[in-house]
Amino acid sequence: xxxxxxxxxxxxxxxxxxxxxxxxxxxxxxxxxxxxxxxxxxxxxxxxxxxxxxxxxxxxxxxxxxxxxxxxxxxxxxxxxxxxxxxxxxxxxxxxxxxxxxxxxxxxxxxxxxxxxxxxxxxxxxxxxxxxxxxxxxxxxxxxxxxxxxxxxxxxxxxxxxxxxxxxxxxxxxxxxxxxxxxxxxxxxxxxxxxxxxxxxxxxxxxxxxxxxxxxxxxxxxxxxxxxxxxxxxxxxxxxxxxxxxxxxxxxxxxxxxxxxxxxxxxxxxxxxxxxxxxxxxxxxxxxxxxxxxxxxxxxxxxxxxxxxxxxxxxxxxxxxxxxxxxxxxxxxxxxxxxxxxxxxxxxxxxxxxxxxxxxxxxxxxxxxxxxxxxxxxxx
Length: 380
Ligand SMILES: [Mg+2]
What we know:
- By secondary structure, the protein is an alpha/beta fold.
- 36% of the residues lie in helices and 21% in strands.
- The strands form 4 sheets. The protein has an 8-stranded parallel beta sheet. Strands 5-4-1-16 form a 4-stranded antiparallel beta sheet.
- Helix 1 crosses helix 3 and helix 2 crosses helix 3.
- It is globular, with a radius of gyration of 20 Å.
- Bound molecules: magnesium ion (MG).
């Protein structure tokens, strides 16, 4: 059964409230969704979240890249020729090695298409993706997140996290002045909560150490991306003098990044995100590199992911053993409306069940895709 056509949607869904960190403030999602459809009319959906400050991709460039560079390798593909025992590796190998001119990597673009073909493949056989990603647990527990903002906003967000019963919380920080807010958040959440910080590259080596020493007393699990993406040796130097474990996020985009960070002993944790890493195959490869090197893993998300990446993340989070932290599945906690018929959001305490329906286990509502698409491109 061949893939006969595809459609690319450039999607913008408003947020219920804006989300900010040191690199960006946004009030709507900005992602691309790809639908691939077989000759018999079975469709699969994938999503990528291009971010210039993460993978170097813009949504506009990503739409063009998917249309011109990736889809020609996919339209016409016979799904019956894909090995169901190694579907991620096989689908990933259908796509060309990403060119990197003008971008760190075309990973969000690649991710959108990998997920669409995988979803279509498993729907074609009426099987769940969990056949290829057997769950190690039947539920996933997500972290709460506190974004950058005024002291009053941070306090309100911490109170909401406490009321929702989150046991692990990530707090965005953007400078020295956040030390007092970290103290306040620790005070509100109590001593048993796991608190980690994400600086999105806000510090330099000197300000990073000064800040980390000032918040060490608040029992912080780790600092994510304290400095901008740069040399792994600089990150290794910071780690060697940091009183708090260090997690790479913007610094870990490609498989080569993973090897470089391991070789330099630069970090204690990787934050892997399916869109950032270029799909499930690459995320599995990097998680194995991390496991072999004794590096802990967080499975993170992009702000504004729809139900498609949420569902893919749910499957992967349930499958990966020893995951230290999980983020995602915000859905209508953040978006005014999500695009699946099912409610994909996490519940109280951040818990959510695994998914078992065909493909990624959600039903994408094309009426909503059309409602929020800035433009669509049909390819056949
Ligand atoms: Mg981050």
